[in-house]
TrEMBL record:
GO terms for molecular function: hydrolase activity. This is Dienelactone hydrolase family protein. The lineage of its organism: Bacteria, Bacillati, Actinomycetota, Actinomycetes, Mycobacteriales. Pfam families: Abhydrolase_11. Residues 20-185 form the KANL3/Tex30 alpha/beta hydrolase-like domain. Keywords: Hydrolase. InterPro entries: AB_hydrolase_fold, KANL3/Tex30_Abhydrolase, NSL3/Tex30. SUPFAM superfamilies: alpha/beta-Hydrolases. It comes from [Mycobacterium] manitobense.
Length: 204
């Protein structure tokens, strides 16, 4: 399995990588999402190999919502982590934005080994439907997990996220992005730097 197989784009650090980061996109997005690019740039600047990749449904068609099964997308996460793990001997951080983070968290809950899980705008529930919580797999996650989340995210409030994060069977940290919606755009906060800082704290 190579980076081409996972439609991966690598951001290389200067010198030998401290470890690897493997990130994927939200439901309507792709590996080229500006947020993913900025986060991978930040990781590379800190000395890590960072790879952003397309989930299987996005490899099949360039636009549109997820098609096929969630199980296939979770298998795609496992493939991507395995491919990137082969490139460096250090720790592995994995995650993604929204749907991509959810698929990664489900793969980790099912036994995919990573050192830290980093979730951006985790979609706790569909907008306006808090009763449809996407939390049942969280207690099976046993690695440190960082939730980077906007305070105006319609897929879940910070108050809803706190008890959900507490379900995770390991240390968690919530990075609150004040005023940001699901896209995590902020005019005042450096979202990639805050998220990377939290993940590095989780590693220690």
């Amino acid at each position: 399995m190579t980076l081409d197989d996972i439609a991966g784009v690598a951001h290389h650090p200067d010198g030998e990588p401290a470890g690897a980061v493997v990130l994927t996109h939200g439901a309507g997005g792709s590996r080229d999402a500006p947020l993913l690019t900025r986060i991978c740039d930040e990781w590379a600047a800190r000395g890590w190999l960072a790879v952003r990749y397309n989930l299987p449904y996005r490899r099949r068609r360039p636009k549109g919502p997820p098609s096929g099964s969630a199980a296939a997308d979770q298998a795609g996460v496992v493939e991507a982590v395995d491919a990137v793990r082969a490139l460096t001997a250090g720790p592995v951080v994995a995650g993604g934005h929204s749907y991509g983070g959810r698929m990664t968290s489900m793969a980790v809950a099912d036994g995919l080994a990573v050192d830290v899980l980093t979730l951006f705008s985790y979609p706790l529930h569909p907008p306006g439907k808090p009763e449809r919580a996407r939390t049942e797999h969280l207690p099976r996650i046993t690695v440190p997990t960082v939730f980077t989340h906007g305070t105006a995210d319609p897929f879940g409030t910070i108050d809803e996220l706190r008890p959900a994060a507490a379900l995770v069977g390991a240390d968690t940290e919530i990075v609150e992005i004040t005023g940001a919606r699901h896209d995590l755009i902020s005019k005042t906060l450096d979202v990639p730097a805050l998220a990377v800082d939290a993940a590095l704290r989780s590693l220690r």
